[in-house]
Structure formats: C-alpha cells, structure tokens
Amino acid sequence: MNRMTTLVRAAWLAVPLAVASLPAHAAGSWCSQGKTVRMAGVTWESGSFTTEVLRYVLKNGYGCATDTVPGSTAATETALSRNDLQVWGEQWTGRSEIIAGAVKAGTVKLVGDTLPGGTKEGWYVPDYVVHGDPKRGIKASAPALASVEDLPKYKALFVDDEEPDHGRFLNCPSGWDCERVNTRLLKLLKLNDDYTNFRPGTGAALDAAISSAYQRGKPILTYYWEPAALMAKYKFVQLKMPPFNEACWKTLREENSPNQCASSYLVSHLKIGVSTPFYQAEPDVMNFFSKVSFPLEFLNSTILDMTEHKVDAQTEAVKFLKGHPDMWKPWVPADVAAKVEKSLAS
To answer: Distance between CA atoms of 179 and 223, rounded to whole angstroms?
Structure first.
C-alpha cells in the first residue's frame, strides 16, 4: 500500500468521526452573523406566551440575539412582510388580509401548527344549563338545548333585564370583528325578534358579565372563543350552528355584502409567521418552529394562570420550559435541548 493510498484511506475513515462530532443542527446564516431576530410583541396571552417560549429557545438554544417589538396588529404584520420583523408567534389563519397578501407575494411563510385542531369560536351556554350541576344544587334548565335553532324557545330563560320580553345575547364589544359577524348572524338566524343584541363596552366587561352569571349559576347566552382563560375556568356547551360555508363566511365579514348567509365560524389554525429571508437563512430553526405544539386544554389553563395570578409571558414561558421538558424537548435536537436546560438551571 503506497503513502497516497494510506492517506486517502485515513481521510475516509476520519469522515464518520468528523460527522459524529458535529452538533445535531448546523448554524444558519442569520444568528451566526449576529443579526437580531426581531419578534412581534403580541399582546394577547396565548400569543405572548408562545412568543416568549420561542424567544427563550432561540436565544439560549440556538444562540440568536432576540428582541420584541410592540405595535398594532396592522403595523407589525406589515413590518413582518417587509422583513423589519422576522417572527410573529401566533398567526390565526384566514383572519388577516395583510398576511394573506404577504404569503401570496412570497414575503412571509406560515410555519407549523401550534394548536392541533385549530381554534374554536361560537355561541355558548354554561354546561349547567344543559346538564345541571348536582354539586351546586343546579338543575338543568334547558336539557334539550343543542342548537341555535332552538333558541327562540328559550328566550324567557335568557331574559334581558332591560327588555323582559326578549332574551339577551351577549355579543363582543362594538368594533370587534366578531361583533359584526354575530350581529349579522342574529339577523340571518331570525333571532332579532327574540333576543337583544347586547354589546359590552370592553373585553373585560364581557368576561365580567360571563363570570358573574356563572358564579351565581344563572343562564347566559354568549359568544366566546378558545384558547381562552374562561374556557379553562368554567365549563360550557357550544351550540350547534349551520355548517361552515366558506362563501357565506366571507359575506359575514364583508361590510356591505348584498347576499349574506349563515355559517359556523371559521376554524383558524395557529401558525408561526416568519419573514421569508429569515425562513431561508435558518432552516434548522424552521424545523424547530414546525414542531411547536400546545394541546388546547394546556393552552387554556396556561392563559388562566397568567390572568388569575398576573404572571407575565416571560415568567410563564420559563415555568413551562422547566416544568414540561417532555413536551418541548422533542421539538429540538439534543444539543439545543441541553443548552436550554443548562440556561434554565442557572
């Protein structure tokens, strides 16, 4: 065997050792160059919690410099489409024309599915209205109530104190997208003659009205959504609506559609919005993003903890990472997980 053959053979034998010594992920071309990953300062609890989980792992597991940038939804979505921001932690699909346009133009990518099965929205009554609550001594007041079509028969049960010949439907505050949709649904479902369309002044007032009725064991008919803290705190029954129809859904959201028709709410999927340059620069981070997932019940209870104990999103994210390694460690390679755990321990 000559010297050249020996050297070549030695080089080939060294390849597996070199590959084995590499980290489980390769450095991308954004964080390794010291560029800051700018993240939208999402204000609602589930979005801010998800953002801080992503941020912690990016910083401590992948070595990325990070920052959060506050701003209105429209402003930060526009910034994402221009790569002035790189990450939006919780995008509700089908709800933003800005993001839909950016995805179509190729300037934004939507990654992963952080809430399996998607969001829930609709009209709810407390569970004790349908099933009773023996522990609280509450008998079922409407055991046959299952659908919005049944509501005319129960207007006396959900009586409006200000208009006793009407029931009360607790809508969203004026100006919210859901308020407009619900107002149109009341008309299309022919419930305007039976129910008052009551709009609380704020989201806090909506929550307070629901909580007050629930704690007193009183019937209430309301719009709500998940993930949300109230859905972890209390037990509700969602009323059946007409099947989802994409064309009808669009008419419900359009301001002056001449041919509106009823539909269930769109199920939105929660995804991570990423600017295309960052998406292309950090494929291993995108692999991490694609695996992030929180069960609905867990997310509801996390939001409840944040609201009831006034816990900020950063603290809640650290609490999650310390307490649920079984949930998040499968999202990342072993070397990244080890760095995150070392940071949490210190």
So the answer is: 9
